[in-house]
Write a structure and sequence with these properties.
Helices cover 46% and strands 15% of the residues. It is an alpha/beta fold. The chain has helices at 21-31, 42-58, 73-86, 97-107, 125-130, 137-151, 163-170, 197-202, 212-215, 220-238, and strands at residues 12-15, 37-40, 62-69, 90-94, 113-117, 155-157, 175-178, 207-210. It has a single domain (8-237), classed as Aldolase class I (TIM Barrel), CATH 3.20.20. It comes from Ancylobacter novellus (strain ATCC 8093 / DSM 506 / JCM 20403 / CCM 1077 / IAM 12100 / NBRC 12443 / NCIMB 10456).
């Protein structure tokens, strides 16, 4: 007998990268029960999105606040404490040691999970070189994951192309969340290190962040279900028979 397959809806995080709460409400309404987890970043967050996050949480949805915090320790800790009080499930910080430590202090005993951002999926080696980094993407990701694991951060945000290596460095307990996920045939946009939903899950990702392929679809619910079908196929291949 096979073990039960996790609900693929919980693995898809729909990125509400939209300019207004009204636009976000429309997408959420069209998705209905198809989606259970939403990400709110700068664009919507600065347009009333935190209030909308409270509404989503009150309706039983999970919310990922993706502000990629990075500041002096006291500011990060207090900001994270506010996100914990909001009821968010995930929040991101940049994977600098001082910032990660402050975020873990700020979340306290709350269930909020802190995710450390290694290298943005829109960056490649040339971008890091231009920014003055001495190491390439692979070396930078590895160093930041090692620091995050030592500090005890709850998970890592990384490109799907880095997920297998990150899983090996992080171990089984930490969460891996991957943006830059594109179904077959979808435009990559400004992302440079992308993978399909199936490939990302097989590489070790726990949650996939998908925005434009769902938001721009004439049928967002169908687009979300297509991603979830790939997730289910990947999860099925990972579940051993009893």
């Amino acid at each position: 007998m096979s073990a039960p397959i996790p609900d693929p809806r919980d693995r898809l995080i729909v990125a509400l990268d939209l300019p207004s709460v009204g636009a976000a409400e429309s997408i959420v309404s069209r998705l209905g029960d198809t989606a259970t987890f939403y990400k709110i970043g700068y664009e919507l967050g600065f347009a009333g999105g935190l209030g909308f996050a409270r509404e989503l949480i009150a309706e039983g949805k999970k919310v990922f606040i993706d502000f990629k915090l990075h500041d002096i320790g006291n500011t990060v800790a207090r900001g994270v404490a506010s996100l914990a009080a909001l009821g968010a499930s995930f929040a991101t910080v940049h994977a600098y040691p001082q910032t990660m430590r402050a975020a873990m202090e700020g979340k306290g005993a709350s269930p909020l999970r802190i995710l450390a951002v290694t290298v943005l999926t829109s960056y490649d080696d040339a971008d890091l070189d231009e920014a003055g980094y001495r190491a390439d993407v692979a070396s930078t990701v590895a160093a930041r994951v090692a620091q995050a694991r030592e500090i005890g951060v709850d998970g890592i945000v990384c490109a799907p192309t880095d997920a297998a290596k990150v899983r090996g460095l992080l171990g089984a307990k930490g969460a891996i969340v991957t943006p830059g996920v594109r179904p077959d045939g979808a435009a990559t946009g400004d992302q440079k290190r992308v993978a399909t939903p199936f490939a990302a899950i097989r590489a070790g990702a726990d949650h996939l962040v998908v925005g434009r392929p769902i938001l721009a679809s004439p049928d967002p619910a169908a687009a979300a279900r297509a991603v979830q079908a790939e997730v289910a196929r990947a999860l099925s291949a990972q579940v051993p028979s009893a």
